[in-house]
Amino acid sequence: MGSITDVIDRMREIDGGLAPHDGVACFNRVYLKVTERIAHELTTGLFADPPFVERLDVDFAGFYFAAVDAAVAGRPARPWRPLFAARADRSVWALQFVLAGMNAHINHDLALAALATCADTGRDPDDDPIHHDFLRINEILEDVEAEVRRSLEPALLKLATRDAETLKHIVGTFCVARARDLSWCSLQTLWPQREHPFLYGNSVALLAQTVSVMGRLLVTPVTRVPDLDWDLDGD
Q: pLDDT confidence of 1, banded at 50, 70, 90?
């Protein structure tokens, strides 16, 4: 997969093969929306190094596509297991699925993707303007996450107070900006370890375990989801 256009095409293909309320479909639609925004911004001057950003986007998406393919084979990667295990549970809300996918992809995959992109392009994570562009992507993600959270509000009004508070508590445990900050810290930790396979392997395994625990929290069942739960695009 060589370009962000290829990434978008694969996400659209995945979306076309899933039922609307499938938990993976919920995450995939948001991921597609973010990727389309990034593809647009590659041409607007938002990023200081568009070729590097595109390469990172492609490498990053490859981890998600690998997770999808592994799930089809019945062997989802550990950080992704909570999302794939709960994908058909109608007592888990669309926003929970979205955040569970973001948790796996940002808290685990992003550092590994950035490490691979830096290594393959002969760059160091501290080289300018890598972190600058990394933070620019945060802005796009936060905008889309806010749209998803707003889409939940009409359904929350129909919930009993106890269920609404439970759902708010669950989704309030995840923040995109904080997750990406932690991912950058993981990259800084793993970068010097990459030449020490034993240490690197242990660090990645611990990261996967931690992310998996958080994922299970995010897909905690709340209550039966009303039909209007998912309305990100106003359909």
A: low
Quote the pLDDT of residue 234: 41
Nearest to 53 by CA among 3, 107, 122, 126: 3
In whole angstroms, what is the distance from residue 69 CA to residue 41 CA? 29
Please give the single-letter amino acid code of residue 122.
G
Buried b (16+ CB within 10 A) or exposed e, 53-89: bbbbbbbbbbbbeebbeebeeeebbebbbbbbbbbee
pTM of this prediction?
Answer: 0.91
Whether the link from the prior residue into 129 is cis, omega within 30° of 0, is yes
Contact status, residue 50 vs residue 42, Cβ threshold 8 Å: yes
Hey, what long-range contacts does 36-45 have (CB within 8 A, 24 or more apart)?
36/8, 37/140, 37/143, 37/144, 38/4, 38/137, 38/140, 39/4, 39/5, 39/8, 41/136, 41/140, 42/4
Query: Per-residue DSSP letters for 132-161?
Result: HHHHHHHHHHHHHHHHHHHHHHHHHTTS-H
CA angle, residues 13, 93, 152, in degrees to nearest 5: 95
Rounded to whole angstroms, the Cα distance separating 232 from 63 reads: 25
pLDDT digits (tens, 9 = 90+) for 96-153: 999 999 999 999 999 999 999 999 999 999 999 999 999 999 889 888 888 877 877 7
Q: Decide: 114 and 4 in contact? Cβ < 8 Å.
A: no
